[in-house]
């Protein structure tokens, strides 16, 4: 009966076929979320690219522990205010473990380790972390979420990471510093936080993910801020306050909101490869805001990275 019924309904087939045709509304509708997700992830990368220069500014007025603790408290107050104003319910119990990973990696671990590194490292050298982050995030995603990108994807990702690492190491003179342990530790914890946050953003809005992660850290960051501010010297300079406000509102909250939304829309591996452009953006900001100088290798590396990004976005992932 079912086979016979299918045969006697030619009109239903005729109606759906034009919709799925090339240029049809179905294809256009399916493409819009991917484009929107790519734009959101790119906005997150742009926000993150200012993190290191803003941290360098913040360190002009605050100690490293004060800067990290206060930025987390301010970001948590912004996020908590939004959650309360919109009456967002508490996450389901099964999501709290994932939120704890996001909190440990993105809210606490990465800001603390990179801030400690930037006391003795230049922003160019610290950009090595961001250069390796897309590849590390893709590896964490394969292990945690079960994604299986193609061989082309991996080759392009490795090539892009190699280009960024070569450029940033050359910028720092090729010398390893004591800050490298902080930087590699930050790389690992941030990749774990990004992966878990991207997974959670599939089942809840991206801003809920970072919002609840920030609020979850308040019992730690609030007393830590009080202790740090009382024990470290503080000088309220224009650079210091501006850097603090950016890393709190821009990097710690708004940037992660659009970043997690983008990852949920286009997938963790593809979104992570957009970060290959982040070190180069950071170096541009470093020239404009910190007065650092770039070599002629910058445009060559930028071209290589953009090619790698184009390949990874087209590769199956």
Q: How would you characterize this protein structure?
A:
The protein has 317 residues and is mainly α. It has 14 helices and no strands. It is globular.
Key structural traits:
317 residues, 14 helices, disordered N terminus
Order of helices and strands: HHHHHHHHHHHHHH
Outline, from the CA principal axes? globular
- The overall pLDDT average reads 83
Q: Ranges with pLDDT <50 over ≥5 residues?
A: 1-21
Helix proportion: over 70%
Describe the largest sheet: none
Give the termini distance in whole angstroms: 41 Å
Q: Rounded to an integer, what's the Rg over CA atoms?
A: 22 Å
Record field, number of beta strands: 0
Structural class: mainly alpha
**Can you count the helices?**
14
Oligomer: single chain
Strand content: under 5%
Short synopsis of the structure:
This protein has 317 residues and is an all-alpha fold. It has helices spanning 2-7, 10-20, 25-49, 51-58, 64-85, 96-117, 123-144, 151-171, 180-200, 206-231, 238-266, 268-273, 278-290, 297-314.
Topology:
Blueprint: H1 2-7, H2 10-20, H3 25-49, H4 51-58, H5 64-85, H6 96-117, H7 123-144, H8 151-171, H9 180-200, H10 206-231, H11 238-266, H12 268-273, H13 278-290, H14 297-314
Helix pairs in contact: 3-11, 3-13, 4-11, 4-13, 5-6, 5-10, 5-11, 6-9, 6-10, 7-8, 7-9, 7-13, 8-14, 9-11, 10-11
């Amino acid at each position: 009966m079912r086979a016979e019924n299918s045969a006697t309904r030619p009109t239903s087939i005729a109606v759906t076929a034009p919709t799925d045709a090339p240029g049809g509304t179905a294809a256009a509708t399916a493409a819009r979320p991917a484009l929107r997700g790519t734009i959101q992830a790119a906005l997150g990368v742009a926000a993150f690219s200012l993190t290191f220069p803003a941290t360098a500014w913040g360190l002009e007025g605050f100690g490293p522990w004060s800067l990290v603790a206060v930025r987390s408290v301010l970001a948590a107050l912004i996020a908590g205010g939004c959650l309360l104003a919109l009456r967002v319910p508490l996450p389901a119990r099964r999501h709290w473990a994932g939120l704890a990973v996001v909190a440990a990696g993105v809210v606490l671990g990465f800001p603390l380790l990179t801030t400690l590194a930037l006391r003795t490292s230049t922003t160019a050298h610290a950009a090595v972390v961001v250069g390796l982050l897309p590849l590390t995030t893709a590896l964490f995603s394969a292990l945690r979420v079960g994604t299986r990108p193609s061989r082309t994807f991996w080759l392009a990702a490795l090539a892009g990471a190699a280009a960024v690492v070569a450029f940033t190491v050359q910028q720092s003179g090729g010398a390893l510093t004591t800050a490298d342990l902080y930087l590699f530790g930050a790389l690992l914890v941030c990749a774990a936080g990004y992966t878990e946050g991207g997974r959670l953003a599939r089942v809840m809005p991206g801003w809920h993910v970072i919002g609840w992660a920030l609020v979850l850290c308040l019992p730690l960051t609030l007393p830590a801020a009080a202790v740090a501010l009382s024990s470290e010297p503080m000088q309220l300079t224009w650079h210091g306050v501006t850097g603090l406000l950016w890393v709190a509102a821009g990097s710690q909250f708004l940037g992660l909101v659009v970043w997690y939304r983008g990852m949920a829309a286009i997938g963790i591996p593809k979104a992570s490869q957009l970060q290959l452009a982040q070190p180069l953006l950071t170096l541009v900001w470093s020239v404009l805001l910190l007065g650092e100088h770039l070599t002629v290798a910058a445009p060559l590396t930028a071209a290589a990275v953009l090619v790698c990004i184009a390949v990874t976005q087209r590769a199956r992932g």
